[in-house]
Specification:
heterodimer, A: alpha/beta, eight-stranded mixed β-sheet, six-stranded antiparallel β-sheet, 13 helices, 22 strands, 22% helix, B: mainly alpha, 11 helices
Chain lengths: 589, 246
């Protein structure tokens, strides 16, 4: 039986980037705020100190900082004709768990998505007509434009100390930056990182081919930095232990040392760790949330009433909670009706692995998570959809994020997987190979969605969430088309051997691909095709807001954390300046 | 590749196959005799010049001991990993770097016990038969590496000479007789590569020798003032493990 606790004003579920931003931004309201985090507390010292953090086995191979699927996981299938089976260990993606969430172990690549990404449907149809959109594709606009979000992108970059070079300030295109980006009001807060050898080669090759390479926007600080909140960052060590690891230098922006300590300074804020929320409880009208039910570390069940509830767990976790709580109508692909779970999307990959002669020394282990050179010539709508045969494209980049040898010992295709010949190939290629990679957009489709599984349960007895997903023709064409471009660049870089990737179809949950799960609780202008209005407020239950990558109507050819952070600032401002003054729907439905 | 390098490679491979034959023969007797010990395995291989001294192998046979594997299993694992990553002219082998101990410790600990595995299954099914992906048996970690008779994972004993008369080992992943065997192979190969390249504090990669072989400097990683000056230049540093730095 749940113990009912005293009511609070604001309840935050999940304390990563977005929960942390909202907790910090609402501190000035003097409201009583409680955050419930399913994982434990974490801090740079002692959790991420050097040298212990430089442990590939513990953090990269054994996922020490990530969700433990022994307790809760998902089931997966490629299509409705199949029976979904449980994901028994982490593979394709790595959700976070603990204070700071996945913001602790991300790479730090911090994009502003392209203008097209915010208005994908309108801009596509305006240019190519309705016929270019496949009938099963749920291509949707965001309810706000890039220009609406520009100040919030700026705010997030400054919070993170993002290092980069602007390519478009007030409409003026700047060579060396990303000339395809939307117009910015300001430069990045820090200059670009130091390019590694492979990036110098990539940049030269891309320029020779007429493309427009630029340094990745990186929230690995290129110099010591103090952000506008007064939080100090150290200069990045280029240690090469970044994604999947915490940062010993506080150089990689993370909520655990930026927004969360500021939230904790507020005497009206309380953080409860090891507290897992099982559901949001609604009143008899189902139009108002009254409380959440959660378990603490001892398994005791509590009911925490609150006036306003923010779901700021990982993208998949938020959709899971909505489904368990009966908030919003679950999506049914048979009728096309319902919205929760609709428009789940993911990320494409692929490209080329370029092998060089032994005179080319890359020192790949000198790296940083977001260290890379990218180009957007085939991303968003910067290329001809009709000619290419696909919508969405992707960023093409050469990254230098480290070369930890358990997971990075590239060998040419055809090399035996073991034995003396394998070992020789590992030695011959370890520091003479680079990946030219496509990070491709994935569109949303009628047949790709999230729902509850009829069979399997988590340790708490709740049904697991079920993922029905596969790459569709548009994405397969994209992966092939973009891989061909990567091959051209690899050749121009002087590769003596190269392997072109083959699209990984059908989608498999087993190998790691990307922790860029999007959709399932999208924001939009039409309640029949979105869960949330433009302020990330649930249409049906206005005292619940939902943040994170689950709000994107489709995925872009870019990492999601930039717009995830920007939208958290955008929603926090709407809550503070509009909702709290007059609680109720901020947009008429 | 120079002619000389190639020649050395060939010699190394032949020596390796001889060595492999000795170890494999010992292992292949296990199901019947059950008497070959890890000590004997080491004795059979200790005189080869390609093992970089016996210091690396002795602790496996005696000193540190096995927590998880019994005598027959450990002998099999040692022979198997010596095949997967042999000692040769390119560099050290998995066995001499302590990878058998690494695998033993992994199996004895949380990973082997499945402390991060989702473990519910439908009524009447084992979790192995009720999982996503093509290799559900990967999830039966302990059972997988703790088979009463590891030889049964393979149609033919390791090290048996090919019927075609060449020196190729018959023990190859593609010839494993069923999915359980292929999964056994997959898990063994994964653990072997992990142990070979993981921080030395986990029992394999003794003295960071696998890191040295490929040129990875290990845990001592601070390159902010090196990444630019060392562009396209060799960076030679003796690898350091975590325990070397604290």
């Amino acid at each position: 039986m749940a113990t009912k606790l005293n009511a609070v004003d604001v309840l935050i579920v999940g304390l990563g980037w977005t929960g942390g931003i909202i907790a910090k931004e609402l501190a000035s309201t003097k409201l009583k705020i409680v955050a419930l985090e399913r994982g434990g507390p974490r801090d740079t010292n002692p959790d991420f100190i050097d040298p212990q953090i430089h442990d590939e086995l513990r953090y990269a191979a054994r996922h020490d900082l990530m969700q433990n699927v022994r307790r809760e996981t998902i089931t997966v299938r490629n299509s409705e004709s199949q029976t979904a089976l449980p994901m028994r260990q982490l593979g394709s993606f790595l959700p976070g768990q603990g204070v700071g969430g996945a913001g602790v172990h991300w790479n730090g690549v911090t994009w502003r998505w392209l203008e097209w990404d915010h208005q994908a449907r309108t801009r596509t149809i305006d240019k190519y007509g309705e016929k270019i959109v496949p009938s099963d594709m749920h291509l949707q606009d965001w309810p706000i434009t890039y220009d609406d979000l520009e100040p919030y992108y700026d705010k997030f970059e400054k919070t993170c100390g993002t290092s980069g070079k602007a390519g478009n300030i007030n409409g003026r295109k700047i060579d060396g930056g990303n000339i395809f980006e939307g117009s910015r009001k300001d430069e990045y807060p820090n200059p670009p990182m130091i390019a590694a050898q492979s990036m110098v080669m990539f940049e030269k090759a891309a320029r020779n081919l007429g493309y427009h390479p630029f340094p990745n926007p990186s929230s690995n600080a290129s110099r010591d930095y103090i952000n506008p909140d007064g939080v100090a960052f150290g200069q990045c060590h280029y240690c090469g232990f970044c994604e999947r690891f915490g940062c010993e230098a506080n150089a990689k922006a993370s909520p655990h040392f930026t927004v969360i300590p500021l939230a904790l300074e507020n005497p009206n804020f309380e953080l409860r760790t090891n507290s897992i929320v099982l559901k949001v409880n609604l009143d008899s009208t189902s139009k108002k949330a009254v409380s959440v039910t959660y378990l603490d570390a001892r398994g005791r069940e509590f009911e925490q009433p609150a006036d306003l509830i923010i779901l700021s767990a990982y993208a998949l976790g938020n959709v899971n909670l909505l489904l368990h709580s009966g908030i919003g109508v679950p999506y049914d692909p048979a009728t096309g009706k319902g919205v929760v779970g609709r428009n789940y999307a993911y990320q494409c990959g692929g490209g080329a692995t370029a092998f060089f002669d032994k005179k080319t020394i890359l020192n790949r282990f000198m790296g940083a998570g977001a260290l890379g050179t990218c180009m957007d010539d085939f991303n968003g709508d910067n290329y001809d959809f009709e000619k290419a045969g696909y919508i969405g494209g992707g960023g093409i980049s050469c990254s230098n994020s480290g070369a930890r040898p358990i997971q990075s010992h590239p060998t040419p295709r055809g090399t035996p997987r073991w034995g003396s010949d394998w070992k020789k190939a590992v030695v011959d290629n370890y520091d003479h190979a680079a990946s030219i990679g496509n990070q491709g957009a994935v569109m949303a489709y009628r047949q790709n969605y999230l729902s509850l599984d009829p069979t399997y349960t988590d340790v708490f007895g709740r049904p697991l969430m079920r993922m029905t997903f596969d790459f569709q023709d548009n994405e397969v064409k994209q992966m092939n088309g973009q891989a061909d471009i990567c091959v051209t660049i690899a050749k121009e870089m002087g590769a003596t051997k190269l392997d072109r990737s083959i699209p990984p179809v059908p989608y498999s949950i087993v190998p790691y691909q990307s922790t860029h799960n999007t959709g399932g609780a999208v924001f939009g202008a039409d309640p029949s095709t979105s869960v949330l209005n433009k302020y990330l407020q649930v249409w049906d239950v206005p005292n619940v807001f939902v943040t994170g990558a689950c709000v994107f109507p489709q995925n872009a050819g870019k990492n999601p954390t930039g717009p995830v952070g920007a939208l958290a600032y955008w929603a926090a401002e709407a809550i503070k300046n509009q909702y709290l003054k007059n609680p109720g729907p901020l947009v008429p439905s | 590749m120079s002619t000389r390098e190639k020649s050395q490679g060939d010699v190394g491979r032949r020596d390796f196959l001889k060595l492999f034959g000795a170890a494999g023969a010992a292992a292949s007797t296990l199901p019947l005799g059950g008497s070959a010990s890890a000590d004997e395995m080491v004795a059979a291989t200790a005189d080869t010049k390609h093992h970089r001294g016996t210091a690396a192998t002795e602790p496996q046979a005696g000193g540190s001991g096995y927590e998880f594997f019994n005598v027959d299993e450990s002998a099999f694992i040692e022979a198997a990993i010596d095949t997967l990553i042999p000692s040769d002219s390119t560099g050290p082998g998995a066995k001499e770097l302590g990878v058998a101990i690494y695998i033993d410790r992994q199996m004895a600990g949380g990973y082997g016990k499945g402390d991060r595995l989702y473990r519910y299954a439908r009524a009447g099914l084992s979790i192995a038969d009720d999982a996503i992906g093509t290799d559900p048996n990967r999830h039966r970690r302990r059972q997988c590496l703790r088979a009463e008779n590891p030889q049964e994972h393979f149609r033919e004993p390791i090290g048996k000479r090919s019927r075609h008369g060449d020196d190729r080992p018959r023990w190859q992943e593609g010839r494993a007789s069923n999915s359980a065997n292929r999964n056994f192979f997959g898990l063994l190969l994964q653990l072997t590569i992990e142990g070979y390249f993981a921080d030395p504090m986990y029992g394999g990669n003794k003295d960071g020798a696998a890191w040295k072989m490929i040129g990875f400097p290990g845990a001592d990683a601070m390159y902010m003032d090196k990444i630019e000056p060392f562009r396209n230049k060799p960076y030679a540093a003796d690898p350091k493990g975590i325990q070397d730095l604290i």
